Amino acid sequence: MGEFDNGLDKKFDFDFSDPCVSKVKVDELKKFIEKDSEAVIIFYGGEPLLQIDKIKEIMDNIDVPFRMQTNGILLGKLDSEYLNRIGKILVSVDGDEKRTDKNRGNGTYGKVMANVKLMKANGYDGELVARMTIAQDCPDLKEQVLNLVEAGFTSIHWQLDVGFYKEDFDEAKIGEFFEKYNRSLSELVEWWVGEIKQGRVLKLYPFIGIIDSILKEEPTKIRCGAGHSGYAISTSGKVVGCPIMNNIESFKAGDLSTEPKDLKKFEMNECEGCEVLDLCGGRCMYWRKAGLWPEEGDKMICDSIKHYIREIQLVMPIILDCIINDIVHDGDFEYEKYFGPEIIP
């Protein structure tokens, strides 16, 4: 344990003692999980399917809803007996074959889509969510989302990978990315609303999440649930507020002996006073707490979020009209919170 300098300005104490392979005893995990009647287990990574035996052991001994986030390459290795019990699966695929293979390696798209086809042939009827990454060299969000819709996905979310560390920040290049990305997002909203007018509500999670909150007039905390409603259990059994920050000592919330009600809570005070906070929730605890981007970069991200929320607010009269006229229903915009899809990219 000690100070670790990797662009974090020596802000945190790190502990890298967690084993690479999970050493969590399933009976201890079961006792912890059963203390919360609303608990859901999400298999997360790294890549969870590298530990198929551990997944099976957990599923054989703990009776709760299961979810998974995976790169999709090993989906065909998990017996359908288990796979079909995982109600929602997020699969990393970034749009069409060319884009996905560029981001994730040659042949990745073909392997993932073959596994998705096999899952469906073997009786999988849960929700499959395409888990996209939008990179600096591909700001055309609409094009890649439509590619996934054409491939058969009706549930999609995306996250931005526009660079993290201060030394990689290029203001002109990032500014150009956001200009194109924001324009493409606006075009995607227009297309999506056109589908709604025809009675079809595709689960584009960044859109339905905001609309659901507006319809219910519900302010939100961090949309992923990190540090208030969702926690990560590390390979050593410690409980942390965010899976990305599992090695940072100050984000340890407890361990498997801690009562769920006593887990440490984390607040996002950095965003107090923001006019869209009740709909945004603060975007990302890691992004805010780590401070890896310069101020002008953070502002670009926040301006993009405000643009996206404003675009949704502008189409609310159309959506409300569709609900009033029974073209769609307010329940079409409801979703399960905290199982993985990004609401604020």
Features:
single chain, alpha/beta, 11 strands, globular
Average the pLDDT over all residues and give the rounded result.
93
Number of domain units: 2
Query: Could you say which structural class the secondary elements and strand pairing correspond to?
Result: alpha/beta
The rounded distance between the terminal residues' Cα atoms is 32 Å
Describe the structure.
39% of the residues lie in helices and 13% in strands. With 345 residues, the chain is of the alpha/beta class. The model is unreliable at 1-6 (pLDDT under 50).
Helices and strands in order:
Elements: E1 2-3, E2 13-14, H1 26-33, E3 41-43, H2 52-61, E4 66-70, H3 80-83, E5 86-92, H4 97-104, H5 108-121, E6 127-135, H6 141-150, E7 155-161, H7 171-197, E8 203-204, H8 205-216, E9 232-233, E10 238-240, E11 252-255, H9 277-280, H10 285-290, H11 295-324
Helix pairs in contact: 6-7, 7-11, 8-11
Task: Give a quick summary of the entry.
The chain has 11 helices and 11 strands.
